[in-house]
Amino acid sequence: MPARGKRKPAECGDLPFVIKRDGSWLYKGTPIGRKELVCLFASVLRREADGSFWLETPVERGRIVVEDAPFVVVEMEWDGADSDQVVTFRTNTDEIVTVDLDHPLRFKDEGGGDPKPYVRLRPGNGEHPIEARISRPVFYELVALAEPQTVRDRMMLGIWSSGVFFPLGEMPNDDT
């Protein structure tokens, strides 16, 4: 329920925006070339409990199509080592996020042995957060930082960030 004195934004239905898998934004099928404009639209992006994406201003809101994740991690920095290490990402819209309990890593496995890595940027309305897909070059950098750690009696390869170990995957068994 809206706060007293505030009106709920008017529903505009489906808007002609698409966010492509590569992070590019299209309006009526045409790429939005100005990064400042993409960042402005990104600042009003919301995610509903059903997983749908919306652009929402105080006055209007409309549903948009997102092919994968609305953002892409394009750069990574890290500082420290072992459990004192901190990993920070920058997205294609220059949003900065530090990997921690509020911004964990997630891996989507669609079969074929090529998991897709994501990081949570911010919550949505419900269980579906707004995430950024980690680009392949950045994922390779992340894997280069990985180290083995026992997690629930299983040897995992993962990274430390903000005092938390984030498993990237299970270590292969050397029993040959």
Protein architecture, described:
There is one protein chain. By secondary structure, the chain is mainly β. The protein contains two helices and 15 strands. The chain folds into two domains: 10-66, Roll (duf1285 like fold), CATH 3.10.540.10; 71-168, duf1285 protein fold (Roll), CATH 2.30.270. 11% of the residues lie in helices and 47% in strands. Strands 3-2-1-6-5-4 form a six-stranded mixed sheet. A six-stranded mixed sheet has the order 9-8-7-12-11-10. It has a three-stranded antiparallel sheet with strand order 13-14-15, with helices on one face. The longest helix has 10 residues, at 136-145.
The total strand number stands at 15
Percent helix: 10-25%
SS class: mainly beta
CATH homologous superfamily (4th level) name of the largest domain = duf1285 protein
State the end-to-end CA separation: 61 Å
Contiguous low-pLDDT stretches (5 residues minimum) are none
**Side-by-side strand order of the widest sheet:** 3-2-1-6-5-4
Task: Supply the key terms.
single chain, mainly beta, 176 residues, 11% helix, duf1285 like fold, six-stranded mixed beta sheet, duf1285 protein fold, 2 domains
Briefly, what is this?
The chain has helices at 35-43, 136-145, and strands spanning 10-19, 25-27, 30-31, 45-47, 53-56, 60-66, 71-79, 86-91, 96-98, 105-108, 116-122, 130-134, 147-151, 154-161, 164-170.
Topology:
Blueprint: E1 10-19, E2 25-27, E3 30-31, H1 35-43, E4 45-47, E5 53-56, E6 60-66, E7 71-79, E8 86-91, E9 96-98, E10 105-108, E11 116-122, E12 130-134, H2 136-145, E13 147-151, E14 154-161, E15 164-170
Parallel strand pairs: 1-6, 7-12
Antiparallel strand pairs: 1-2, 2-3, 4-5, 5-6, 7-8, 8-9, 10-11, 11-12, 13-14, 14-15
